[in-house]
Amino acid sequence: MYLYTYDGTFEGLLTVIFEAYERKAWPTSIEQEHMAQPIMFGDTIAVITDDEKARRVWRGLQQKLSVGAQQALYHTYLWEQPGFEQIIYHYIKLVFGSNESIEGNYAAQCVLQVQQAAKQVHREKHRMEAFVRFQKTADDMFYATISPDFNVLPLIIKHFETRYADQRWAIYDTKRRYGAYYDLNRASLVDLELPDHMQKPALSPDAKHSEEDDYQRLWQIYFDHVNIPERKNPKLHLRHIPKRYWKYLSEKQPKQLRG
């Protein structure tokens, strides 16, 4: 029995795969080092991320997988559900052990699991792109918080970088405690601990731009005017906008009275 531990990065996980092949010691379990529990029987192998080893594994996968399958594998990493590392390991082992494409081999559980995980992550990505609402801060930056079910922040950056290319913005994932910051030139991921008032969907009054409340009221008025009561379909509405996303939407917040 072999327990492999790694730092939680995608490159670290690919390094684990490299080490398993080099040692011919196939992992019984793969866990992030801060979550790993000691095992009574077998060996624990602590893997240090090696970018070159990770690149060698990824180049090998690129030669045998379509771009879509490569994306699905990365999306499975972002899925973050228990056991995702073992799913990825079994998938990669199947890829390297087969002379033919395994992408349509849904009889293999790991192939089916990767496809299912990738679909869930892809759906969450599109919902975040649609439902994120920025607020203007006192220092003229546009700011939003998210807490998605899956780690989709790396996937939504390009969308907002293109859509808001002329504005400084930041998106912070409160669940994973890291964010993306765009400085008018490029967007980058940043690890940081924000104060409590910056981790809530609504900014505190002292952090907001003086005109932000007016923008919010205008958006609510617009939503009220385009929302025709006779055409309301609550079930369809909830299907397209589940309640867990309402906290992001200006039109779903309590209407503010002008002071």
Automatic annotation (TrEMBL):
Residues 84-251 form the DUF4130 domain. InterPro entries: DNA_repair_put, DUF4130. It comes from the Bacteria. Pfam families: DUF4130 (PF13566). This is DNA metabolism protein. It comes from Pontibacter oryzae.
